[in-house]
Amino acid sequence: MTWRASEIARTPVPYVGDERTMLEGWLAYHQQTLLLKCAGLTADQLRAATVEPSGLTLLGLVRHLAEVEAWWFRENFAGESVDYPYFTEEDPDADLDVSDADAEADFTTYHRELALARAAVAGRSLDETFTEVGRKGRTFNLRWVYVHMIEEYARHNGHADLIRERLDGATGE
């Protein structure tokens, strides 16, 4: 039997709530939107680059966002040591190279990273600050990370819309 990405029921965003509820709700909505764009597709379809000349794929987006979750929530904010599944110093864009990727394993990695990211911030204040690892050593708070992740997913979900439409004509939410 051919593996396919699981179907998903997206949780509606909250219309009323405190700041944390809204940030978590919108981030979850965008995380689920990415999975919705992948739902029902085979590994080969998920690895297909359909918006030439871009080589971007749905599976590449899943892998990329798994590492972005780990980078911001776990390594930077929580100070955890993260063993990235794709990134290496020699190939920092390995997350996007899906030529030999195992889609089922990559979806498992994505779901694991979502759970680890949620655990890393559970009960932590949105005002809590941290200094970014490497780069410019800038200081951020957890609120900024949520807003940035919502922006990151929104942008990449736009890419996912185009890729999915080219794959099988599916559009919309």
Describe what you observe in this structure.
This protein is mainly α. It has a single domain, classed as Up-down Bundle (Four Helix Bundle (Hemerythrin (Met), subunit A)), CATH 1.20.120. The chain contains five helices and two strands; from the N terminus they run H-H-H-H-E-E-H. The chain has helices at 19-38, 43-46, 58-77, 103-121, 142-168, and strands spanning 129-131, 139-141. A two-stranded antiparallel sheet has the order 1-2. The mean pLDDT is 95.
The gist of it:
The chain is mainly alpha-helical and 173 residues long.
Write the layout of secondary structure elements.
Layout (H helix, E strand, L loop, with lengths): L18 H20 L4 H4 L11 H20 L25 H19 L7 E3 L7 E3 H27 L5
Antiparallel strand pairs: 1-2
Residues in helices, as a percent range: 40-55%
Mean pLDDT: 95
Q: What's the gyration radius in Å?
A: 16 Å
Categorize the overall geometry.
globular
CATH homologous superfamily annotation: dinb family like domain
Distance between the terminal alpha carbons, to the nearest Å? 27 Å
In the CATH scheme, the class would be Mainly Alpha
In spatial order, strands of the major sheet run 1-2
Please describe the biggest sheet, giving its number of strands, its sense, and whether it closes into a barrel.
2 strands, antiparallel
Give the tally of β-strands.
2
Low-confidence stretches: none
**Which architecture does the CATH hierarchy give at level 2?**
Up-down Bundle
CATH topology: Four Helix Bundle (Hemerythrin (Met), subunit A)
Note the total helix count. 5
Order of helices and strands: HHHHEEH
Structural class: mainly alpha
Indicate how many domains the architecture comprises: 1
Assess the beta-strand content as a share of residues. Answer: under 5%
